[in-house]
Amino acid sequence: MADMYASLRSNVGTLGQILGETIRTNLDDAFLEKIEQIRQLAKSSRQGDEAARDEMLKLLTALPDNELVPFAKAFNQFLNLANIAEQFHTISRNCDELVCVPDPVEQLLGRVLSSNIDQEKMLDCLENLDIDLVLTAHPTEISRRTLIQKYASVIDILAALENPQLTEREKKQQHLRLRQLIAQIWHTNEIRNERPTPVDEARWGLSTIEVSLWQAIPDFLRQLNEQVEERTGKQLPTDIAPVRFSSWMGGDRDGNPFVTAKVTQEVLDRNRHTAARLYLKDIVVLVNDLSVEEANAELLEYTNNSLEPYRDVLKDLRQKLRNTVDYLNARLEGHKPEVDLSSIIWHESDLKEPLLMLYKSLTDSGMSLIANGLLLDILRRIACFGIHMLRLDIRQDAERHSDVIAELTRYLGMGDYNHWDESEKQAFLLRELTGKRPLIPSNWQPSDDVAEVVGTCRLIATQPARALGSYVISMASKPSDVLTVLLLLKETGCPHPMRVVPLFETLDDLNNASSCMTALFAIDWYRGYTKGHQEVMIGYSDSAKDAGVMAAAWAQYHAQEELVEVSRQAAIKLTLFHGRGGTIGRGGGPAHEAILSQPPGSVDGRIRVTEQGEMIRFKFGLPKLAVQSLALYTSAVMEATLLPPPEPKPEWRACMQKLAEESVDAYRAIVRDEPDFVAYFRAATPEVELGKLPLGSRPAKRRVDGGIESLRAIPWIFAWSQNRLMLPAWLGAGEALQAASDRGEMALLQEMEQDWPFFKTRISMLEMVYAKAEPNLAKYYETCLVPENLHHLGEALRTRLATGIKAVLELTQSNALMEHTPWNRESVTLRNPYIDPLNFVQAELLARTRKEEEASTNVELALMITIAGVAAGMRNTG
Hints:
Elements lengths: L5 H21 L2 H18 L3 H12 L3 H25 L14 H11 L4 H9 L2 E7 L8 H17 L6 H19 L11 H35 L10 E5 L13 H29 L7 H6 L6 H24 L15 H17 L3 H4 L2 H12 L5 E7 H14 L10 H13 L13 H15 L5 E7 L4 H13 L7 E6 L2 H5 L1 H9 L2 H7 L2 E7 L1 H7 L1 H21 L3 E7 L11 H6 L9 E7 L1 H7 L2 H20 L7 H22 L5 H8 L2 H4 L22 H10 L10 H10 L3 H10 L1 H16 L2 H11 L5 H22 L9 H30 L5 H18 L4
Parallel strand pairs: 1-2, 1-8, 2-3, 3-4, 4-5, 5-6, 6-7, 7-8
Keywords: Carbon dioxide fixation, Lyase, Magnesium, Pyruvate
Function: Forms oxaloacetate, a four-carbon dicarboxylic acid source for the tricarboxylic acid cycle.
Subunit structure: Homotetramer.
């Protein structure tokens, strides 16, 4: 094992050594020795040495106030550097075969072409793929953007140092730069001083495109084209875009009062501005490249037989893009400049058509080699990003829409819409949707909340269709929730049919999703509006928080099956939008396995998936990583479409239904019915203190005065990952598996785990969570923080954890967790000696801050850094 990870361990060692030298330079030898002593004791403690654990705790509790922040910084930054080394290892030249699997698209094409699937069918599937990855801010990256940029530079240096042709002098220069970067990282405050605004979040999303995806998209398509050409002798179309990107950053107003119509307008302008700026950079290079004279008749006629026809067209585009950047700069500065639309790039065709003309001329003139360089890259960027960069989704809670209609009906003397039953609501909405008179009076002065919803709809009406994605309705449950939004869009003058997408989130809503859509599809007017295509969003976070991961996963699976059938009967194409979080408790996990575990027929070449928070950086933060992630998504969607998984056997369904029922009972018996649960949760985790950490723009709760039910899924997961119990990601699941085992169903469970991708993925995710859980650390938090009369609950939870681990090990027939995924196990093992001391200190600091009326600045900052450090070590915040 050591040899397999020699390159990774070498890089971790190098970065750790430089960090140690930095600490010694800025503090002293004695402090560095104490850090190293604590690390070694943590390692020994992990191996069961009780004396080492006691010695480590003695050192940690004796840390003076002035050493708390540097101690937390040291371990936090080591974990961040370990993450960097691991991230780099997956794209390193020295990567081993267990980590760097062969290219997934190459493997898939080989598998598809060697099966009985027709080559034309495979190419048709590839050319019509519609994979939309939706970037979302929450839980927002816990690392600051300035640090993320420095971490990326560290990876660049690690890559440069792998070059065997570097001279000794060049190696010294790279090591010097590495030392400088780590010193800069050490002297940068890890914690933001202020909470980011929605615009800050949107800018962060755009920076991921600029530094990585802008390059990764053409690189990926070039590689994909080579593989297709090798096997079929055919080229991919110039405008192929199997993967596109949308965003919720600046459009998601569900429970976020800071996302207003004005903010959304600014974000839309920023998206356009970034696109124009990046296309301008490309066109400037292309002006220099395309100095050729020979052209086809169309281009020569267009340029009046110019001697440099390509440059003439490109110079015109260059000027239009400069004008566009200037125009958008003025808008972003708050001005309302007049502009002649013919002088700027305002429609996609303004940029695409002239470039296509150049491409055709080059190929017609025997210069395909030149055409398929940067020019083709730009055309493929246009196919992926358009001129709006990211299509912005709008999301709002269903209740906010019904409140608008209710306030309006009260004003018009028609009664209170919110008090009508569903059939009355539908009759009213359809009457207004099909009628010609306006519903909103010109002199109506709505309340602020209602005015904001109406203002958002008015803004949508002014935007080009390509700038926007879907209108997502949170907590949707009834047909009227969808019809209400359609009426608001009609009344505010929206000229194009925007996709309106119900989001089914709770267990009950998932179970009733097909009934809701059946009722909608039965409405002739609505079927006409859909034009044969419906998008439905499946909520993972809130359903798991409502029912536990096992019951939620089965409800999601079952809802998708029913929605596929309902849509098939209505002859409507269905796109499923998966609202997956970064963590297992919020539907997270490897995307490839997740897609292949969906019900057969539910993918069919189309899928939308949220990519959240820090997972965006882990998957798309570097061009090479992004190419890998794009390949994984493409191969998974093609495989799920062309080689779908088997239908589950009736006995599997029956077993899974029983597991779901027992798991939801076990989960709710604790979360809902245990009278001490809320008090235990608030005492045993840093849930309250998390509110002080300026993570994202959105408040942690939907309602300020609400309890657990109003707490968002992200802080709910985040809090339990901090004390290492990981409770939301396993509670209920292990108890249900053990009950099935006790009934003599272990052989059936093992068959399901072997042959049913859905169940196999669920068990794999459980295994990973159990491996990350640390009951002894959770017990330490309890000892330090929880009143003794609540300790019985901690004991019960840890017993349930042990039950689940035992059941999973019996099911997988393993001696240890993650035995079959050594890379994942190694990843967890590598971090533990650095996370553990942060956890112990965090528990001590929580106890100290809760006892003192006003904690010192050092203590507060050290506590925040431990939270950031544990999040870095666990590899996700929520």
